[in-house]
Structure formats: structure tokens, C-alpha cells
Amino acid sequence: MLPPFADRNLFKLLVSCIASMGRIKTQLIKRLTMDVIKDSKERCTTQFEDNKKVVAELLGDASKKMRNSVAGYVTRLMKVKEEY
Predict the structure, then answer these.
(1) Where are the alpha helices (DSSP H) in 4-63?
(2) Which position has the higher pLDDT, 49 or 3?
(3) Does residue 79 fall inside a structural domain?
(4) For residue 45, which of 73, 75, 66, 67 has the smallest C-alpha distance?
(5) Is residue 76 a part of any domain in this protein?
(6) Is residue 5, in this structure, part of any structural domain at all?
(7) What is the model's pTM?
(8) Percent of the chain with pLDDT over 90
(9) 75, 51 Cβ separation under 8 angstroms
């Protein structure tokens, strides 16, 4: 059931904007990702599993969640770089 908005189209627009928003990476994740890419750019690929191994070697003392975030961001940047 829809809430009592005056304009249903406005409500649908708000719901679609909220559903399409992505996660925001913190400065720490971005900085660590850039360090990983700078240190071992030739080993970084577009495959998440491969990047997880590279990040685990370089950031061994970081938490699993942080390592996975960095590996995912490395993967995303490698895919974007590959497109152009």
C-alpha cells in the first residue's frame, strides 16, 4: 500500500532513486585501493577472486571485510579502465 502522497509519480520517483543508489566507499578504502594498484598494477585483474588474493598478500593484517571492500573496488576500477 502506498503512503498518502499527493502525487504518486513523485513517490515512484523517490523509490526508484533510493533503490538505485550505490554504496559509498570511505577515504580509507579508496586510499588502500590506490596503494594496492600502485604497488602491483600488473597483478590486478577484472576478476574479484584474483584480486582478493593480491589484496590478502598486501593487506594481511586488515579485517576480512576491509580486504573484500578493497578487492571489490580494485575490480571495479580495473573494469572501468578496460572499457576505454
Answers:
(1) 8-19, 27-39, 48-58
(2) 49
(3) yes
(4) 75
(5) yes
(6) no
(7) 0.70
(8) 61
(9) yes
User: Where does the pLDDT of residue 84 fall: very low under 50, low under 70, confident under 90, or very high at 90 and above?
Assistant: very low
Q: What is the CATH number of the domain that holds 67?
A: 1.10.60.20
Cell digits of residue 41? 598494477
Q: What's the DSSP call for residue 8?
A: H
The span from the first CA to the last CA of the chain, in angstroms, equals 45
Whether residue 16 lies inside any domain: the answer is no
Using DSSP, state whether 47 is helix, strand or coil.
coil
With cell 598486501, the residue in question is 58
Q: Is the pLDDT of residue 58 over 60?
A: yes
Rounded distance between C-alpha atoms, residue 16 and residue 35, angstroms: 35
